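so im writing up the methods section and need the DUF1329 domain-containing protein record in one place, dumping it here so i stop losing it
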Amino acid sequence: MLAATLAASFSLAAAQEFTPLGAEAAGNADGSIPAWTGGFSRDVTWSDIGKQFVDPFADDPVKFSIDASNYESYRDNLTPGQIEQLRRNPDGYRLNIYETRRTAKYPEYVYEAAQENAQTARLVAGGNGVLDYQGYYPFIHPKSGVEVLWNHFMRYRGGSLLRTHTQVITQPNGAFSEVQLEDRAAWPENLNGFDPVSDANIMIFSTQKVTAPARLAGNILLVQETIDQVKEPRLAWLYNSGQRRVRRAPQVAYDGPGTAADGLRTSDNYDMYTGSPDRYDWKLEGKQEIYIPYNNYRLTSHELTSDKLIEKGHLDPAYLRYEKHRVWKVVGTLKPGMRHIYAKRVFYVDEDTWQIALAEHYDSRGVLWRFSEGFHVQYDYADTPWYAGEAIYDFTNGRYLVFGLTYNSTQPITFGFKASKSEFVPAALRAQGIR
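--- predicted struct ---
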């Protein structure tokens, strides 16, 4: 009886201390990070949204800005990648800091599964796989860096998603070119035909189709994202619309080239970091309070164009929003004998969403090579946090790439629909790729 009472008291205390996904519920000491009070929702549906979001925080004023002239005063709340980006762009680039709004909110069943996973989930194969979990977020109270990464890999993104988006490749002088893409993905819960036995090691089924420019239109990448990729490598196929051929694509992994990215991102740069963590030794370096991209609704506006957003060396700061949040810092060092163009990686993972907000990629000399930002939005019509875009800056050549931008799309991202496994098999690619 006493044990049961103590257990109940502990559970109540834990519930008050943490959010349902394991973040610190309380605000920070100086009040610049508020308490989490359940997240943000406007009680709207996808059809209510219409063709685009309306920024719910459009009236928020900029509290202050950080630029090349004053970043030293804020160094404790910035990352090396942010500081380098500020230092390289003294004219016009800044971080506009806004009120922190902890908008993360998920469906109740996601919270319930995460709470159960906290008692049962376990790493296998040296951290390269996860067993005894359901749904999403296996390790809401992580004890290692790789557990934090699995929360990012296995985070909730609506159960399924469909988005049309723009990828922009930018040159050092500010000139740019666009590629239009269509991404479709489904998780087991929303996939008709999913076999829990034969498909047990598959986490996500996805396709990425190029729709423009004409010379690339119709090319499709199909990926069946496995959990333990040492046991069973990522399954990938490419459909070439010019040749009308489907072929296996083992290069679509690790540091293989990203789709139509002109060498500016690797395959595992997608979604800030995706794929297998097996080539790195991961270290969890605790939490920090950092100014990260958050609630970037302006990036979804149809009034925005690439001509307005893209500037030499950086995006136009007027369209970006940064807030102070607590993040987990995870450092990966390439294992001896393993190969990857990035010898070291550092990820800053938002505590409320388990989504990577910032990333730094170092070369074999230990020099900071690339810096990535994930521009968070709470897609409240689906209770789903995700990105409104991702940027990756190359400090060696002055180029950068932005992708996931939806301002050219005729509708918001669709979440939560039922898909069929038959859509995510090689035989379906040829029909999908007809121009």
